[in-house]
């Protein structure tokens, strides 16, 4: 397959290019999960210049199960093993932005009935998020790009897999089985199996939730190194991060050829990028321990 064939449409797909059956199922499904209330509050707080620790703590405490999960996580050996009983203390320990994004992720994923294990399960979802966060931070320092939208954008960019597991279990199980024996790019496998991919499915969910740009563009195009639309630098940075993570078998990207192309587009030193992901690989066990604490 010619490399650019996957991107002929540049992801500007109309209803004529996607399976109407699946689109209608998502649009009309009564059980399509609404965005959780706490997640809405977190989004509002993230945009609030006067947001503070007390406000974040009060939002988290609206949901006792999320608050308990946060306290359990921050009381783990990962943070010294000290037992915490107040959410506010947990914020001081983990950090405001880190906990804000963690809680947003916990809330967003909670209504989606997806498997914990497996290539596209929740465990690997979180491992990719924490790994990608580290790599994005390092890559971003080599650019002039404002990477602030990327933390939440990266957290959500693969949510299409989890929605697929939640609504289309049969199709999700088929994809999980197929990627074990097919070395093609995952979106090529998805389109061959059922004519659509997790990027589009995820973008539909984010539209349903009224998630703002550029997060929807990142979700819809994060496998496309040739993307030239809105927020293209952010899309390329996520695409590069995923391609690099693929080198250490994290995430779903096998598009290693794009690394050189994307480094050139972003003016990122390729050798430095490759060194960064190799250094990251030494810390994967620590990241796995971190993820274990929130599952």
Tags for this entry?
295 residues, mainly alpha, Hypothetical protein af1432, 17 helices, disordered N terminus
Structural features, described:
The protein has helices spanning 20-28, 37-46, 53-60, 64-74, 87-94, 96-109, 122-140, 148-156, 159-167, 169-178, 186-194, 198-208, 215-221, 232-246, 258-266, 270-281, 284-292. With 295 residues, it is an all-alpha fold. The protein folds into two domains: 8-33 and 114-292, Orthogonal Bundle (Hypothetical protein af1432), CATH 1.10.3210.10; 35-110, no CATH class. The longest helix is centred in the middle third of the chain and has 19 residues, at 122-140. It is globular, with a radius of gyration of 19 Å. It starts with 19 loop residues before the first helix and ends with a helix. Residues 1-18 have low confidence and may be disordered.
Termini Cα gap: 39 Å
Provide the residue-averaged pLDDT.
Answer: 86
Question: What structural class should be given to the helix and strand makeup?
Answer: mainly alpha
The helix content is 55-70%
Number of strands: 0
Please state the oligomeric state of the protein chains shown: single chain
- CA radius of gyration: 19 Å
- What order do the helices and strands follow? HHHHHHHHHHHHHHHHH
Question: Spans of 5+ residues with little confidence (pLDDT < 50)?
Answer: 1-18
Q: CATH class of the largest domain, please?
A: Mainly Alpha
Quickly give the CATH architecture of the largest domain: Orthogonal Bundle
